[in-house]
């Protein structure tokens, strides 16, 4: 029997802990064209021992906080990790029902429900611990509250960008684990989420006979059908468990946690073009990916896409889809440690996604990108000159609804 849904309305925003607040402002306002919409009040800064700025584009809200002395949440988080997401915030229909259900199912609240008031109205909130490393979940019932959050001063006029790049909302949140089963069970039995999609992949074509090379992952997506909130969850896959990108994230983040957040957009061509004009770096796509793309689309059952393939190649946008002739477009911004040239900036990154009917998460791109890299390597090409494209035994993706 499925657990009752806890009444989530939507994912309200992300609370991000950083060492350099001005660097975050430049990234969100100058590079991503978010608006700076508010800041922490002096009272909140004194009580929380951290300074905060809030940024918004479409329905995406990111609050960045930096320590202002010892003992605050930002200080405690950054003592253990590089910059990263310390809390994910949800709006709920009835805070007392949500609290009761979570408490009955073994959720672990940090405190009882708190009622907070300021000139913008009244808000009820509480937070719980999670299996997502040191990332907590905060639940809020707004009760007609007009501001951002008590203690945050909202500007009369937003500053900086105006979302001219066309971001809409958060499509999904992806987290990495050494073992994801506890998180899957927690999402199902405590939060009442349901399985949506899964994939298993390993780069077996370049693994030596002794299994010393290659890398893989297992990914399962859970969601709340009532609100559409989706969490993708990854773990490394043997062999070469420790060489998996998932395991490397664990080392760099110093534990499990949120790897990336996917931002949906109204027009990915416009968004990515604008980001590239502003100098935002993306993860590289091998050129052979696009040489092989027409044939791969046929194998996926996609006989037409609206976008020009030359434009996708120029912008290095990836394509994936299903046999129902639906597809999605996606691209990944360089992780913040590389972008800011600082390990303390952390391995977190943003994905940009545009769905054209497909509800998947780009499983085919794992294999297609790997085939492209293999064909570019002379040594590998000599060893496997006719490797098939996306063989079923190496890539297994499915909807589980």
What does this structure look like?
With 401 residues, the protein is an alpha+beta fold. It has 2 domains: 8-160, 2,3-Dihydroxybiphenyl 1,2-Dioxygenase, domain 1 (Roll); 167-399, 2,3-Dihydroxybiphenyl 1,2-Dioxygenase, domain 1 (Roll), CATH 3.10.180. The protein is 27% helix and 34% strand. The protein has 12 helices and 18 strands. Strands 6-7-8-5-1-4-3-2-9 form a 9-stranded mixed β-sheet. The two termini are 15 Å apart. The model is unreliable at 205-212 and 370-396 (pLDDT under 50).
How are the SSEs ordered, and which strands pair?
Layout (H helix, E strand, L loop, with lengths): L7 E10 L3 H11 L3 E6 L1 H7 L1 E8 L2 E8 L5 H8 L3 E9 L2 H10 L9 E5 L2 E8 L7 E6 L10 E9 L6 E10 L4 H9 L4 E9 L13 E9 L4 E8 L8 H9 L3 E9 L2 H10 L10 H12 L9 H7 L2 E4 L5 E6 L3 H4 L9 E8 L6 H14 L1 H6 L11 E5 L2
Give the strand order, joined by hyphens, for the main sheet: 6-7-8-5-1-4-3-2-9
Distinct helical segment count: 12
Order of helices and strands: EHEHEEHEHEEEEEHEEEHEHHHEEHEHHE
Distance between the termini: 15 Å
Strand content: 25-35%
| Overall spatial form | globular
Task: Give the helix/strand class.
Answer: alpha+beta
Give the tally of structural domains.
Answer: 2
Estimated helix fraction: 25-40%
Largest sheet features? 9 strands, mixed
| Quaternary structure type | single chain
Q: Going by CATH, what is the homologous superfamily of the largest domain?
A: 2,3-Dihydroxybiphenyl 1,2-Dioxygenase, domain 1
Q: What CATH first level of the largest domain would be assigned?
A: Alpha Beta
- What integer is the average pLDDT? 88
Low-confidence stretches: 205-212, 370-396
